[in-house]
Amino acid sequence: MSESFEGRRVLVVSANYAPEHAGVAPYSTGIAEHLADRGARVDVLAAMPHYPAWRVHDDYRGRWRMVEWRGGVRVHRRRGFVPARQTAARRAAYELSFLAHGSLRPPAGRPDVVLSQVPSLAGGLLGGRIARRHGVPHIVVMQDLMGAAAAQSGIRGGGRAAALAAGAEARVLRSAALVGVVHESFTDRVTAAGVSPARIRVVPNWTHARSPSGERRAARARLGWAEGECVLLHAGNMGLKQGLEVLIDTARLAASRTPRTRIVLMGDGSRRAHLATLAADVPNVDLLPPAADAEFADVLAAADVLVVTQRASVLDMSLPSKLTSYFASGRPVVASVAPTGGTADEVRRSGAGVVVRPEDPEALYGAARALAEDPGRAAALGARGPAYVRERLSRQAGLGRMTALLAEAMAGQAPAVGLSDG
After folding, report:
1. Do the domains 216-393 and 9-206+394-412 match in fold?
2. pLDDT in tens, 185-205
3. What is the 3-class SS of 102-163, one letter each residue?
4. Which residue(s) pair with 74 in the sheet?
5. Rounded to 5 degrees, what are φ and ψ at 177?
6. How far apart are CA 68 and CA 76, in angstroms?
7. Given 1.10.540.10, 3.40.50.2000, 3.10.50.30, 1.20.1260.10, which CATH number is that of 9-206+394-412?
8. How many CB atoms lie within 10 A of CB 422?
9. Where do the domains of the chain lie?
10. Given its phi and psi angles, is residue 109 left (phi above 0), alpha (psi -120 to 50 degrees) or beta?
11. What is the pLDDT of residues 320-365, one digit of tens each?
12. Domain 216-393 carries which CATH code?
């Protein structure tokens, strides 16, 4: 990471930013603060913190716009519509409100480069407009593919919205100097949108979780997990695309067959209340709030199996950011996901887990029980995770890829392609 950013001005456009601690925010925050540490003057255009609960954090309620300093970065907040329930129409209103407010009052001054983090499609549009206005390079990093997300996530009205989202997304991508994708499985859709492969770079996310303390027994006792109890843990967003109902059904199977199996869903999201209702009569399901950052790694390591789930329709729209933390924990992963999608590819490549059919509680239960009954295999899978993180997903490697992307765009000084805003 030898690139110098001394005296450079960088604008990061990301609806999600610290103090949000899940999803895209840790990566937007990590790169912005890293660039500031390297001498850049960094501004961030962001929404008011609201994810994953999909409600504005208490400290920011009632604010319309504001500027705050975090970690040497100047963060420009813009208020927008935050839907408690997810439908295609509500998501469109969320995007349009951020786009409108960000367009009315963008950060002042001419940046040397603009970096947009998408899953906010509005963020990509805003970044492109600002870059074109100043004639500077625009880099888009695709954390999620929004056209595919509308079609695959199960959001109400998503099928009708998919074509519109894909069209806007293609416009953003084609106008960018460089496009980063967090997984190779995104590449085909990006090229299909009209982007030359020569302008695409793979920039995997890095693990931002701390290493476990090693006090696993103490962590389990603190959480109320008994010795000899097999704990399956899902940690992260509780949204539509996760299809977490399969875990409630898996818990019902376990309750009748192996009562000392506990299913834990830890996190927040638009489907949390729905899942709580489904689990009301299931004795071996616990719903926990998100763990504090200082405790998160120890909670993951205290589980016996870490679970990632997705609806069967989710193929190539996203890569769960939780995987980087899962791998770092040293526990085996069971992925209940489409076998041909990017998530399945990543779990297989890591060697740290197994893939089973999505939305199939029998398959998920069977995989978890097989690991519980073969502790040697579970330990071997778990050990591969930290090794994979060291090889591919370290913070140093991730930030190095991102700074190289920015340096390449600025060295070429390729401005955003001149498409009109109309």
Report:
1. yes
2. 889 889 998 999 999 999 999
3. HHHCCCCCCCCEEEEEECCHHHHHHHHHHHHHHCCCEEEEECECHHHHHHHCCCECHHHHHH
4. 43, 69
5. -70, -45
6. 7
7. 3.40.50.2000
8. 3
9. 9-206+394-412, 216-393
10. left
11. 889 999 999 999 999 999 998 889 999 999 999 999 999 999 999 9
12. 3.40.50.2000
Complete edge-to-edge strand list for the sheet that includes strand 9-13: 65-70, 73-78, 41-47, 9-13, 113-118, 138-142, 178-181, 200-202
Residue 55: both structure tokens together? 């409600």
Q: What is the DSSP string of 47-60?
A: EPS-TTTTS--GGG
How many Å apart are CA 8 and CA 56, to the nearest integer? 32
In the 3-class helix/strand/coil scheme, how is 214-263 assigned residue by residue?
Answer: CCHHHHHHHHCCCCCCEEEEEECCCCCCCCCHHHHHHHHHHHHHCCCEEE
Question: Helix, strand, coil shares of the chain as percentages rounded to 5?
Answer: 45, 20, 40
Q: Say which DSSP state 316 is in.
A: S
Kind of pairing between the strands at 285-288 and 73-78: unpaired
The confidence score (pLDDT) of residue 143 equals: 86
Q: Please state, in angstroms and rounded to a whole number, the distance separating the CA atoms of residues 39 and 7.
A: 6
Token pair, residue 124, equals: 């990509």
pTM to 2 decimals? 0.85
pLDDT in tens, 303-314: 999 999 998 887
* Tokens (6 digits) for 152: 């695959």
Contact 342, 316 (CB under 8 A): yes
Quote the distance between the C-alpha of residue 187 and its chain's center. Answer: 18
pLDDT tier for residue 413 given thresholds of 50, 70 and 90: low
pLDDT digits (tens, 9 = 90+) for 9-53: 999 999 999 999 888 999 999 999 999 999 999 999 999 999 988
